Amino acid sequence: MAESEPAAQPGHGNDDAAARTAAVPAAAAPSRRSVLGWGGAGLALGAAAAGGAVAAFGGASDGVPAASSGTAVPFHGEHQAGIASAVQDRLHFAAFDVKTADRAELVSLLKDWTAAARLMTAGLPVGEGGFGGLPEAPPDDTGEALGLHASRLTLTIGFGPGLFAKDRFGLEDRRPGALVDLELFPGDNLDPARSGGDLCVQACADDPQVAVHAIRQLARIGFGRTAVRWSQLGFGKTSSTTPDEQTPRNMMGFKDGTRNVAGTDRAALERHVWVGPGDGSDWMTGGSYLVARRIRMHIETWDRASLQEQEDVFGRDKGEGAPVGKPKERDEPFLKAMKPDAHVRLAHPDSNGGAALLRRGYSFTDGTDGLGRLDAGLFFLAYQRDVRTGFVPVQRNLARHDALNEYIQHVGSAVFAVPPGVRDKDDWWGRTLFA
Ligand SMILES: C=CC1=C(C)c2cc3[nH]c(cc4nc(cc5[nH]c(cc1n2)c(C)c5CCC(=O)O)C(CCC(=O)O)=C4C)c(C)c3C=C
Ligand SMILES: [Fe+2]
């Protein structure tokens, strides 16, 4: 299958959006059911088939705004998919604790996960599929995504600080300086059960069942070697990387992501998102750093705030999303026209020494808090080249001065080093770290 595998693309970035069409037309994308006839092929053949499927549709890399929900986003590339690539509608994010103390076992887990991720992102079931294998053995795939399309599934892995701890996996010298333990910011009320993790996987898809299925397979494959520490479902993107599309709205009803880093803005990605060759940790070149924050919104209080107060809090109007004093959403904000504690004024790069983030967050609603209020908010995900010059200065500013703090609270937190992309069928998540 080597000929049909998408060729390794050294130096071929996922952000090179205009040059490639990564989207697989809905009609052409295989559904998981349509490939079940390949049963008996096993994981190895399945992996090759996945490569063939992607190659057949012309994809060699990701980072391209995909066209429709039936498409497959290529798994191989210089950068992992799920960062600069178009943001899908749904999220299942999971943080894992590594249970094994054996480095070789951890490496084999990462290889197994890579093989499964390669298949699932191509819309294929794991291994021999959900049925048709040995009657005496459990099926390789749990089956709940059979018949569903790839749904632009992306799986993005990250490595938490704990992986680099002394006397654990021999990685203490490999910890990047940019992967800092976050300080406790004013107002933080962090729940340890919703924070941290040795590994994370961000599963994004247009179909929630596809995203949930993917995390479940990885958890199942990891059994005994890793365990889910916490996970978060997200139902509506609150930022996009595709500025030509309509800007999504958050749970406070405001357009969110207007001034996000665009997935096609190569210069901004190189400057603010991708780790460069001179940044200090060679194994991270082409990767990025992820900050995840579970931010609870006190939406009942927010809903009683006047429209004027709501617009003052953000420094943008609610209908159009235009910055104060300007008529259109995309107009350049004039920060001094906003209240001194307006969120946009404080978060803007000009207020933070030029710091900029690629935001990829989702809304969540997780039942009630037991006090008659919805446990709702924003699961904030932000990618950056260095946490020290990305999230930290912005959040220091926001935590101290932001008018929005009256209506929100940070209740979960985690940081991860997100390694570069998997180049080809022989590559695997974390190779550059463990090599
Ligand atoms: C530390 C970084 C940030 C956190 C935490 C954060 C929380 C947060 N944001 C909103 C809603 C909006 N944010 C907007 C803009 C914006 N926010 C950040 C950073 C954080 N936000 C940045 C860098 C920016 C862009 C600033 C700029 O360059 O102008 C907006 C306006 C629209 C937009 O540009 O995206 C909204 C709305 C919520 C609700 C929230 C926590 C719950
Ligand atoms: Fe914000």
Automatic annotation (TrEMBL):
Enzyme Commission number(s) of this protein: 1.11.1.-
Cited NCBIfam families: Dyp_perox_fam (TIGR01413), tat_substr_1 (TIGR01412)
A molecular function (GO) term: ferrochelatase activity
Lineage of origin: Bacteria, Bacillati, Actinomycetota, Actinomycetes, Kitasatosporales
Record-level GO cellular component terms: cell envelope; cytosol
Protein's name in the database: Deferrochelatase
Entry annotated with the keyword Repeat: no
Membrane-spanning intervals of the chain: none
Organism: Streptomyces subrutilus
Known cofactor(s): heme b
Alphabetically ordered keywords of this record: Heme, Iron, Lyase, Metal-binding, Oxidoreductase, Peroxidase, Signal
Cofactor annotation comment: Binds 1 heme b (iron(II)-protoporphyrin IX) group non-covalently per subunit.
Catalytic activity: heme b + 2 H(+) = protoporphyrin IX + Fe(2+)
